[in-house]
Amino acid sequence: MFDRIRRPARGLTVTLGAVLVLGAGQAAAAPIPQEPGSAPGFSGSPATAQPITGIPAVPQHPYLAPGASSNIHDDGWMTNTYPGPGPLGVAPQTNSLLLGSECGSIAFDRAGRIVTACLGADTALYLIDPVGLRVLGSYPLPRRAVTDYLRQGAFSDFTGGGYFYLDNAGRAVIGTHDDHVLVLAETAAADGFTLQRDDDLRAALHPDEIVNSVLPDSTGRFWFVARTDGAVGTIDPETGAVQVIRLGTGADGEIENSFAVGADGDVYLATDHELLRFDAGPHGEPAVTWRVTYANSGRRKPGQVDAGTGTTPALLPGGYVAVTDNADPMNVVVYRTAPNAAARQVCSVPVFAPGASATENSLIAAGRSLVVENNFGYTGPEATLLGRTTTPGFARVDLDADGRGCHREWSTDAEAGPTVVPKLSLATGLIYTYTKGSGPEDPWYWTALDFRTGRTVWKQLSGAGPLFNNNYSGIALGPDGTAYLGVLGGLISVRDR
Fold it and tell me: Taking residues 450-468, what's their average pLDDT?
């Protein structure tokens, strides 16, 4: 996975070699090596928590782990919002764990331990001590084939574990790169995982269709999507029967992201040109309830993995669903979810500058507020080497009180978040993101923004060099308020001292 970022940067080849060697074993809990330099360690001021109140709680999905710790986007509505705290920037303490893989998706079990799927030289599902960042156990997952890397690109392929979830029994459910859906339970000693269920989808999928994401609907039925042909399928949890429909052929109808699941069996997913609502048909088959075409420039902008929306749909209270489109400039678009809505689209609000707007990460959805970041300019890890960074930008768009339109609440170009999935803490009122500095040592920063104003509150150096690039992975806030993130070198964290 890491071979493509060998560059004549200071000591980079040696560093990557160390990652590949240490990734093969779990005995040592080594920190991620970084480039020397004099990048500022901390800037700004510690925050005082300013809780965000009046936000309706996301309904607890009956088949997902409780709270906001079940998947990369936190809950079934894909809100990227935590009711609990994150770090306030009080003498921040950072830590890292060197692995041979990038932990793009992070969840937490009932004991607060990290459960994460890490893809790369040592592709596996890991159980990790959240304080010392020590590997407690792992379960190997199928690696991607070399041909898949060549076709999609090593740094823009999320299949095979980029999305997984914890179910209501605390088990990890994950779609693998060889088209199986595995249900893995922690061992009694919490030193690894055991296989409890294996659904083989190969007979139902074409050879080039690879499972991208799996989630349960509110009845417990498994839904899955595959990238090519717009393949959407269901698995009967009792019989294992698999049913698949296809929304396109080849790249037409491509599905790059995960999907959202509502409280009434409703499922929302986006292809490279449409947003769709699905409900199960009379025999449990995927059935399209409605579909809408969003605005599209037809261009795969730098910062995107295809020429479509970069967002997993996010649900809002009151019957709304939001995505970004692929217009120029890009818009935050909100639709009504009701099957028989007289007018489907509520609003379309442009964000960022013409010729410099793109995102490949999901929106933060908090009540009627949506936060989006600009990923324009990220073509891979090389885009952030040798002091380079990407086009900055964050914006907040709010749904009007009457539900008939939207408006931009604030916009800022103070920070460049090349690819991270940012998160919001309702307890602190802070948006947690991950930004790239422009210094010669290539510094990366944990960054906290004020949800109400977009102002940068504080920044803490995470590390310097390409191994601290998060490359599309998502921030996760642990039960004790520690923030975690997967990076090319492994896993990093920041907590108040």
Answer: 98
